[in-house]
Structure to design on (219 residues):
């Protein structure tokens, strides 16, 4: 199964996207940017290489739990404190800016998986990918950092979801393994890859203020 969606920009909701069962749409991504991931069976977790902010490695070999329903990056208190300190330059930048483009927030860089030539893959997410724009309610029009504490997740572990995945073309591939012996349940073989979405995929992409296009991930 594969899918892509457009993400909102400054509250301008975009009802566009596509889900395909049994294939993918090659017109919506750049095949030269595929990053393959190994997924821990059963829990959709990839053991990344590192997470880097402003040139400093803040996580080494993080466990990255992929949750398409999560709208924030989640982790234990220590992990979230470390992330927030890194992207706000130790508190010099606000957690709720009027617009993240008005401040010098650093990119959030995930080093993970493998590219087609066997080198480590890299996903670079600009500040808007780790801030949420509030589209309704009393805080409508404000921005909020998309990082929150989730207890008992485990040390050096993070959940990331649609705030990052909306920028990817995602493809999920789950293949059951053959039973090893009678009476034992079959296992699952899970794999993934990531690619950048094409810049000309829609009129929304042209309005993206020069920011990087989304990426594709495959499972």
């Amino acid at each position: 199964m594969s899918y892509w969606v457009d993400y909102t920009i400054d509250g301008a909701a975009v009802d566009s996207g596509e889900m395909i069962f049994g294939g993918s749409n090659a017109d919506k991504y750049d095949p030269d940017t595929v990053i393959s991931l190994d997924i821990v069976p059963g829990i959709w977790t990839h053991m990344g290489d590192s997470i880097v902010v402003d040139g400093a490695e803040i996580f080494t070999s993080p466990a990255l739990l992929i949750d398409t329903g999560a709208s924030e990056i989640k982790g234990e208190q220590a992990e979230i404190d470390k992330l927030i300190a890194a992207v706000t330059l130790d508190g010099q930048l606000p957690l709720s800016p009027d617009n993240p483009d008005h401040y010098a927030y650093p990119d959030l860089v995930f080093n993970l998986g493998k590219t087609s030539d066997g080198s480590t893959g890299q996903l670079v997410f600009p500040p808007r990918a780790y801030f949420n724009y509030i589209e309704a309610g009393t805080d409508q029009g404000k921005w909020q950092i998309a990082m929150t504490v989730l207890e008992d997740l485990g040390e050096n572990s993070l959940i990331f979801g649609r705030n990052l995945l909306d920028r990817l073309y995602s493809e999920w591939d789950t293949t059951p393994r053959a039973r090893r012996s009678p009476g034992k349940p079959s296992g699952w073989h899970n794999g993934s890859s990531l690619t950048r979405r094409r810049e000309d995929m829609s009129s929304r992409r042209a309005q993206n203020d020069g920011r990087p296009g989304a990426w594709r991930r495959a499972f």
